[in-house]
From TrEMBL:
ABC transmembrane type-1 domain span: 148-357
Cited Pfam families: BPD_transp_1
Name of the molecule in the record: Phosphate transport system permease protein PstA
Function as written in the Swiss-Prot or TrEMBL entry: Part of the binding-protein-dependent transport system for phosphate; probably responsible for the translocation of the substrate across the membrane.
Cited InterPro entries: MetI-like, MetI-like_sf, Phosphate_PstA, Phosphate_transprt_permease
Bilayer disposition of the protein: Multi-pass membrane protein
Region (Disordered): 1-20
Range of residues in the leader sequence: none
Location (main, coarse): membrane
Length: 369
């Protein structure tokens, strides 16, 4: 007993001695300073001024000015932060500059395309463009009513054909496939279909209907089938990924209550991911609505309104814009204006579809509260 007591006293004295040891400033890590908030703006402004002054003397170029200013800004930021704040903070600032620069670089073509299409297409963005066709028009005037209607009809038919096939295929792969040989084969072919060129889908649809109806067939339904070939793999992939993120605990809880598997899929699994599935479908529609090559082969073009996809050629916005720009009449300017306005309308339709997809995703998203 005495030995244990003496040992405890010794340990207490050791701990006490360690805690009572005075802490000096030399034993503490050195605390680095930090750059003020205005330092980044000041360095950027200085880089722009310095590079602009150098280029003004040698030959000014806006693109070269921006690139060299960005490089100088990154170097000066890193060196200044390394001296004041240390290596870790300097590397963090450098990576932030590189990531921000990459983002701005990626935004340049997007902003350029938006600016060009809006500025060029605004000239014919008038009521006549939306309520008249090109029937009997050889110069100025006319519109793209027939092309807008054709685009909406063919895209709607493609959605009706592809959404059930793609969604049910994804349900089979996730819920019933169990990595079987058939499931692996379907996955392989879906991956292959994802990467096929759009013109191949158009040639496939044309060859299929040419065997049935004869060569030279041009119908709206043929274009819808071509777009369906392009839409199905996108719908399958989007739906499959959404179904995979459903926790297995939800399925097991439903099975524990005696609910059959098909009813569990309809009442538990699909409603849980309805927002994500709807978003994927809308993005698939936005992906194919601007396709030109397959519609050139399968649908052709028309000057007047044709609302029957099973009878004759139909006009679509991508093909309308292509022919207006590639084969303009005389004078050339009205055709070019109509081509830019058709591109603007097509871009607006795609934007609306993306907005609708986000709204659907927000409405059907699982409630966390």
């Amino acid at each position: 007993m005495s030995t244990g007591t003496e040992r405890n006293k010794t340990e207490d004295q050791t701990v006490t001695g360690t805690l009572d040891t005075p802490v000096t400033t030399e034993s503490l890590p050195k605390v680095r300073g930090s750059l003020p908030r205005w330092a980044t703006a000041a360095i950027l402004a200085g880089s722009l001024v310095v590079v602009g002054a150098v280029l003004a003397a040698t030959g000014f170029s806006v693109g070269l000015w921006i690139v060299l200013s960005a490089v100088l800004f990154a170097v000066v930021t890193y060196v200044t932060s390394r001296v004041v704040e240390g290596r870790r903070k300097a590397v963090d600032r450098l990576v932030t500059v590189l990531v921000t620069g990459a983002f701005l670089l990626a935004m340049i073509p997007l902003v350029s395309v938006l600016f060009t299409v809006i500025s060029q297409g605004w000239a014919r963005f008038d009521p006549q463009f939306f309520n008249s066709s090109m029937r009997g028009v050889v110069g100025e005037g006319g519109g793209a009513l027939h092309a807008i209607q054709g685009t909406l009809i063919i895209t709607a038919l493609a959605a009706v054909l592809s959404i059930p096939v793609g969604a049910l295929t994804a349900v089979y792969l996730v819920e019933y496939g169990n990595n079987s040989r058939l499931a692996r084969a379907i996955t392989f072919f879906v991956d292959v279909m994802t990467g096929i060129p759009s013109i191949v889908a158009g040639l496939f649809a044309y060859a299929l209907f040419a065997l049935i109806l004869g060569p030279g067939v041009r119908l709206g339904i043929v274009g819808a089938v071509a777009l369906t070939v392009l839409m199905i793999p996108i719908v399958v992939r989007a739906t499959e990924e959404m179904l995979k993120i459903v926790p297995n605990e939800l399925r097991e809880a439903s099975y524990a209550l005696g609910v059959p598997k098909w009813r569990t899929i309809l009442k538990v699994v699909i409603p849980t991911t309805a927002g994500g599935i709807a978003t994927g479908i809308m993005l698939a529609i936005a992906r194919v609505i601007g396709e030109t090559a397959p519609l050139l082969v399968t649908v052709g073009t028309a000057l007047g309104v044709n609302l029957n996809p099973f009878d004759g050629r139909m006009a679509t916005l991508p093909v309308f814009a292509y022919y207006s720009y590639a084969v303009p009449g005389v004078p050339r300017e009205p055709f070019i204006d109509r081509a830019w306005t058709a591109a603007l309308v097509l871009m607006l339709i795609v934007m609306v579809l993306n907005i609708v997809a986000r709204l659907i995703s927000r409405v059907f998203a699982p409630k966390t509260r």
